[in-house]
Amino acid sequence: MSNTILVGAQWGDEGKGKIIDFLTETADIVVRSQGGNNAGHTVIVGGTKYILHLIPSGILRPGKKCVIGNGVVIDPVAVAKEIDGLREKKIKVTKDNLLISDCAHLVLPYHRVLDEQRESKKGKNKIGTTKRGIGPAYGDKAARIGLRMGDLMQPALFSEKLAQRIKENNAVLKALGAKPLKFAEVNAAYLEAGKKLAPFVGNTVVYLHEALRQKKEMLFEGAQGTFLDIDHGTYPYVTSSNTTAGGACTGSGVAPHRIDRVLGVMKAYTTRVGEGPFPTENAEFSDMLHGMGREFGATTGRARRCGWFDAVAVRYAGMINGIDDIAVTNLDGLDTLATIKICTHYKIGKKTVDVPPSDFQQLRDAKPVYIELPGWQKPTHEAKKFSDLPKNARSYLQTIAKLTGAKLTIASVGPNRDQTIVL
After folding, report:
1. What radius of gyration, in Å, describes the C-alpha atoms of the chain?
2. Could you say which of 13, 115, 310, 325 is catalytic?
3. Is 413 known to sit in a ligand binding site?
4. Which of the residues 65, 105, 111, 141 is marked catalytic?
5. Could you give the residue range(s) of every CATH 3.90.170.10 domain in the chain?
6. What is the Cα 84 distance to its own chain's centre?
7. CB 208 within 8 A of CB 284
8. Listed GO molecular functions (predicted)?
C-alpha cells in the first residue's frame, strides 16, 4: 500500500472510518494529522459499533501503531475517556500501539464556552459548529497563546500557564454573559487526564521518520472533508484546520515527497452536516435516507442534509488533493431508486461553470445541472466483487470515476469490513 493519505472529497462524513479500517490491514502505522473530537469515525467490527473521535481507526486492529500528530487539537479529558471506552470493549490501548504528539495543542473548557457563545450570538448566520471548542483552540494556536500536550506533561508549568489563560478568558466570558471558569476544577481535571496520557506522549516526528527509514507503511487518516478545509472549503462554513492532503504533511511532520498516493473517499451521493451552501441538496432524497435510518452524525447525532452526487465539487477536490484513486461508499443507499441524478455543472446566473465558486453566496445561488442515470432497484449489500453488482450500479460507479478524473479502486456496499469491493 506504501504511504497513503486518505481524504474526504466532499463535506465530511464520507465513510472514511470504514475505509481506513479496511486499509489498515496492510498498513503498519495510522496517523491522524488534524482536527479534534469534532470528528467522528464509525467502524463496525464483528457486529460491534465503535465511534472514534480522536484515536485513529487503526486501534481496532492488533499490531498496528496509531499516531496522533502535532496538527491535532486534543481535549485530554475526552481522549482519556475514549481510551477507557475502548478498553471496556476489550480493545488494547497501550504505549505500544498509541503515540500522541507533545506538540499537539489542547482544547480547554474556555474554548468550548467561547465556541458555544459565539455560535449562539450569530443567530441565523450560525456556522453549525459542534461546539467542542475546536475553532477557538486553533485560534489560540495561531495567536501563539495556546497550551500544548508538552505543557501538560509539566504540571507546575501547566498550572501556571492555565491560571493566566483562565484569568484572561474569564474576562471575555463575563463580557459575553457566560459564567466564569474555576481554575482549581479545570486544573485538577486536566492534570488527572495528563497523568493517564503521559505514557503515550512523545516526539511523533522522530518516531515517524524512523519508521520511514525502516520502510514501514503509513496511512494518514483524514478528518472532516475537503469542503470543510479552512482555506479551500466553503468559507466561513468550514472547520478550523486543513482537511486536505497538504494538511497531512504539516500536521504530522512527514515531508510531501514521502507520500506515494492520495485516496479520495466519497459517498455515492452527497451529505453535509451544519450550515452552508449545498447545491445538490434535495429534501425528498434526505427524507428517504433518514427513513432508512441512515445519515445521522456520529459526533452530534444530527440528521445530515442529503443530496445527489456533486461531480463539480469532487472534481475540484481531486485538483486540490491530487487524488489518484477513489473509494465510493454507501452505494447500497441508492438501491431502491428508479432514477439517479449526478450534477455535472452549475448554472450561476447566465454562466455555466464546472468548478465551484470560492464565494459562498455565489455557491448558494448556483443551480445544479444534472444528468440522469437508470437505477438498479436490486440489493447490493451482498456483492463481493465488482461483477456481482447490477449492471446499472457498475455503470453508475464508472460514470462517477469518469466525471471525477480518478481511478475507482474501492466500492463499499455496507458498514462491515466484508462489504467492501476492491477493484
Report:
1. 21
2. 13
3. yes
4. 141
5. 265-422
6. 22
7. no
8. adenylosuccinate synthase activity; GTP binding; magnesium ion binding
Beta bridge partners of 29: 65, 218
Q: Look up 41 and say whether it is catalytic.
A: yes
The ranges of the chain annotated as CATH 3.40.440.10 are: 4-101+202-262
Q: CA-to-CA distance for 104 and 333, rounded, in angstroms? A: 37
Helix (H, G, I), strand (E, B) or coil at 329: strand
* 402 known member of a binding site: no
Query: Which tens digit of pLDDT belongs to each residue from 82-123?
Result: 999 999 999 999 999 999 999 999 999 999 999 889 887 777
The whole-angstrom separation of Cα 409 and Cα 196 is 40
141 is catalytic: yes
**Neighbour tally for 239: CB within 10 Å:** 26
Residue with cell 487503526: 58
The CATH architecture that domain 265-422 belongs to is: Alpha-Beta Complex (3.90)
The verdict on pTM exceeding 0.90 is: yes
Question: CATH for 4-101+202-262?
Answer: 3.40.440.10
Is 12 marked within a binding site? yes
The annotation status of 298 as a binding-site residue, yes or no, is yes
Task: Please tell me the distance from the alpha carbon of residue 361 to that of residue 267, in angstroms, as a whole number.
Answer: 25
In 31-153, which residue ranges form alpha helices assigned H by DSSP?
Answer: 76-88, 109-121, 134-142, 149-152
CATH of domain 105-197: 1.10.300.10
Ranges of CATH 1.10.300.10 domains, the chain? 105-197
For 53, the 3-state DSSP assignment is coil
Helix 155-175 vs helix 183-197: angle between axes, to the nearest 10 degrees? 140
Is 414 annotated to bind a ligand? Reply is yes
Is the Cβ–Cβ distance between 264 and 19 less than 8 Å? Answer: no
251-289 confidence digits (pLDDT tens):
999 999 999 999 999 999 999 988 899 999 999 999 999
Whether residue 264 is annotated as binding a ligand: the answer is no
351, β-bridge pairs? 348
